Amino acid sequence: MKRDTLWGELWAEFFGTLTLIVFGCGVVANVLYAPRLSGFGIFKTGAGYGWDTIAFGWAFAVALAVYVAGGITGAHINPAVTFAAILRRGMPVGKGIAYMAAQTLGAFFGAFIAHMAYLGSFIKDGYMNIFYTGAANPSYSLGNSFFVELVATAFLVIFIYAIGDNVNNVGPGANLWPFMVGMAILLIGLGLGGPTGYALNPARDLGPRIYAALIGDPAAFQGPYWFLVPIAATLLGGGIGAYVYDFGITPFLPKAAAAKEKTASTAAK
Questions:
Q1: Closest Cα partner for 221 from 107, 114, 132, 119?
Q2: How far is CA 186 from CA 89, 107, 115, 180, 267, in A?
């Protein structure tokens, strides 16, 4: 499969997102079921297992997924990032929609693999949701949850644009940018992940949610939360993040300002 074809790009987005979900949902399953720890109830986590484990797991899942697909597409592996690219980076709408479909499909099959990997725990201890996000408890309203996902995803895109901006900003050298994207996920998970489970990514939530519904989860699509928070809020947040970086950060970077002045000077001559 050639890397310069659309099919190659779609395969990269599919497989990159699949990789993300296998290990992201996998770490959640490992924490919830704790299959290597004894003497704990199914709703308890063992020593060393907890939110930090989940946050680090998702961070490295993203970093390694970006390393897998980054050389082909830049590894969007997230419709919110693709939507931002459509708005601010000139990506054709049709191609962007195809990316989003591939990402969601990859997330679906990633959920399947994670489920099969932990099938023994599902059989032994019963069903627990390892697949999709939700409000931490009823005190987090729909509006509160929407706000958290919007802000968190906006920061994610700002971080991604800053990390990838080696021309104007102080982006990481060598091939460290995928690792730094993972560190951005870690920071968001630790700082803003609690209220909603930090979806940040419509495909990451929707693909596994569809899979969960197909294996019999009756709560997967109950109420408006599933659409408004992990899909609508993240897409909107991604767009906002792109605009904030392009209009609130880039114009004030010294290299960008110098390039602008040089262009103006050349035009004057």
A1: 132
A2: 26, 20, 23, 10, 45
Q: Are 209 and 132 in contact (CB under 8 A)?
A: yes
Distance CA 154, CA 135 (A): 19
The one-letter code for the residue type at 177 is W
Tell me which DSSP letter residue 137 carries.
S
Contact predicate 188/156, CB 8 Å: yes
CA dist., res. 75 & res. 68, Å (int): 8
CA-closest candidate to residue 235, choices 89, 85, 15 = 85
Q: Which two tokens stand for residue 98?
A: 């195809």
**261 Cβ neighbours under 8 A, 6+ residues apart:** none
Q: What are phi and psi of 47, to 5 degrees?
A: -55, 130
Residue among 20, 16, 22, 26 nearest 53 (CA): 26
CA distance 155 to 171: 16
Radius of gyration of the chain (CA): 20
Ranges 46-60, 98-112, 121-135, 232-246: which has the least confidence: 46-60
For the chain, domains (ranges, CATH) are: 6-268 (1.20.1080.10)
Q: How confident is the model at residue 260 (pLDDT cuts 50, 70, 90)?
A: low
Query: Model-level pTM?
Result: 0.91
Cα–Cα distance, 167 to 154 (Å, whole number)? 22
Q: Are 161 and 241 in contact (CB under 8 A)?
A: yes
Alpha helix ranges (H) inside the chain: 6-33, 51-73, 79-88, 93-117, 119-125, 142-164, 177-192, 202-214, 225-227, 234-244, 254-268
